[in-house]
Amino acid sequence: MGTRIRVFAAAFAMTAGVLGGVAATPAIAAEAPAVLAPQDSTVIDVTSANYDQVMAMSKTKPVVLDFYASWCGPCQKMAPYLEKYHSADAGKWIWAKVDVSNQGQNKDIADKYGIEYIPTLIDIASGQEKGSRVVGFDEGSGPKDLRTWLNKL
Q1: How far is it, in rounded angstroms, from Cα 14 to Cα 8?
Q2: How many CA within 13 A on the CB side of residue 133?
Q3: What's this model's pTM, rounded to 2 decimal places?
Q4: CB 118 within 8 Å of CB 72
Q5: CA distance 133 to 28
Q6: Distance of CA 93 to the CA centre of its chain
Q7: pLDDT tens profile 112-151
Q8: Radius of gyration of the chain from its Cα atoms, rounded to whole angstroms
Q9: How many Cβ atoms are within 10 Å of 124's Cβ, its own excluded?
Q10: How many of the other CB atoms lie within 10 Å of CB of 67?
Q11: Which residues are paired to 43 by β-bridges?
Q12: Catalytic residue positions?
């Protein structure tokens, strides 16, 4: 009886696929191990739990604290440029992303730096704020200004 059910299920799945329906995934496929892409150790999602570790990293490499939110338009416009410049700089600096999307999320870190507007980028060296900040993002001059700021890290 079990064999008939499996044959019927396979036939049903093929028919659903041909007709554009949703086919059930065989249980065997669900058991296959997932292949994970390697993580970039210079891109970090910062939380209260790992904040001290990120500050320790700033003793050997510049850290850019990126305060952003998923609902923030200027943050979303800046992100591709940060990604592009970070890739071009080949790990010269650590991109430490501090998500403040939800009320209270990472509030302790944002309060520590007096964050009032997002996006805000802060250059950290040896655990301390080093220089000027980038606040906001203007699509006109923003990419050039961001590149100039990052070159000074």
Answers
A1: 10
A2: 17
A3: 0.74
A4: yes
A5: 52
A6: 15
A7: 999 999 999 999 999 999 988 999 999 899 999 999 999 9
A8: 23
A9: 24
A10: 26
A11: 95
A12: 72, 75
